[in-house]
Amino acid sequence: MTFTLPELPYDYSALEPAISQEIMEIHHKKHHQAYITNLNAALEQYKVAEEKQQVEEMIALQSAIKFNGGGYVNHCLFWKNLAPKGQTGEMSGGLKTAIEHSFGSVDNMKQELSKKSIAIQGSGWGWLAFNIQKKSICIVTTQNQDPLSTTGHIPLLGIDVWEHAYYLQYKNVRPDYVKAIWEVINWNEVNKRFESIAEKA
User: Fold this and answer.
1) DSSP for 41-55?
2) Closest Cα to residue 128, out of 96, 85, 157?
3) DSSP annotation string for 45-84
4) Most buried residue among 37, 43, 63, 148 by CB atoms closer than 10 A?
5) Based on the number of CB atoms within 10 Å of its own CB, is 24 exposed (0-12), middle (13-18) or buried (19 or more)?
6) Residues 127-142 pLDDT 10s
């Protein structure tokens, strides 16, 4: 199976001024594509090593598969989590109720997710997530491109705080980027994702 770059559901300029066209185009065409290219290469090498029963080589390839596979999965979700102003919808229904139960209010959740995303050392992601074991909503951070699914959580909303997601526009001021991204969060998508999870929980 070969993975390919998904098309964005909006134009590169559609998220301005929160996220510039230049950032979106480079982020999607260059960075996301690089993860996909490297993932496909690692999987092909793994297939060869498996056929030859080269266990050491198979083990050595795991880190590349995790990193690039995580980059692929995380960004596929990230693009869907964003929408142009006027098309974002509103947080509603079960999602809003669950957030208010876990955090007291929607504003508290936003403040906590923003704070933890900003505080990530180096590169990583801030997540609003569903804890599978506790069956509740929580906030989790991951380093680099580690996929959230390996931690016992299902992602609802992810904030990419790798520098490539904001540096061209916001320079080193990550808090300004995190503040701005709330303007283009696609609550229609997050609502839908939560309802799908809640049905199975």
Assistant:
1) HHHHHHHHHHHTT-H
2) 157
3) HHHHHHHTT-HHHHHHHHHHHHHHHHHHHHHHHHHHTB--
4) 148
5) buried
6) 999 999 999 999 999 9
Q: What is residue 5's DSSP assignment?
A: P
Give the mean pLDDT of 82-100: 96
Residue located via tokens 């580690």: 146
Nearest Cα to Cα of residue 85 among 13, 179, 183: 183
What the block records as the tokens of 183 is 């303007």
| Six token digits for residue 48 | 């060869």
Predicted confidence at residue 142, as pLDDT, reads: 97
Instruction: Provide the sign of the torsion angle of the four alpha carbons 31, 32, 33, 34, taken in this order.
Output: positive
Query: CA–CA separation, 35 vs 27, rounded Å?
Result: 11
- Nearest Cα to 30, choosing from 64, 83, 81, 75? 75
Cα dihedral sign, 98-70-82-20: positive
Phi, psi of 6 (to 5 degrees): -75, 150
Q: Which one has a higher pLDDT value, 14 or 198?
A: 14
Q: Which pLDDT score, from 0 to 100, does residue 199 have? A: 80
